[in-house]
Amino acid sequence: LRSQDILALLRWTLPELVTLLPHFPDRLLIVNAGDPMWRGGLSGPGSLYLHSARPLISADGSSTPVHELVHVGTSSEANPGNDWIVEGLAEFYSIELLRRSGTVSAWRARRTFASFEARARRGKGELRSPSSGAHTARAVTVFHDLDRELRRAKVPHGLDAVATPLLDGPPLSKAALEERVTKLLGRPSAVLENAYARYLKTR
Q: Which residue would you say has higher pLDDT here, 151 or 80?
């Protein structure tokens, strides 16, 4: 059990996470064990389950613990077929919160997002559910592009202005995502429209 390493990561990243998701639980249970525990990370109400062999920051620049902490702080569940929104946002912020907290450099975060884009392209990732692997990488790429689109349009806080109410509101859906983005931009999102069009071409 690398308790001090885990606590250090939480001390760096939790302040940024609580800014994004202000209703994060006041208490957090972390269960960390070796085999035969599943070799990954899982979240539950106010709790995080992490295999001791799982790195706190992966070689690809993402973080399983931070990913699962986003789920812990999320009160919304995805409507059927919209799992890619939840998983895409959790993985996007597992990278972005590391950057904001200074845990990784801006250069490394950019390289990580580029590697996710390449993974999505190689694996022909789609915006689909269940979301994992190349499909989650595709969702991360879409949310990264959407964040840039929102910031170019001078939307304060970029994707945060979309993610915070979505993750802390009614069940997540593609319609709710589009409605929120359209309200902020004053028009439909070119990034989302292109992403959906690309998805339909692969069907």
A: 151
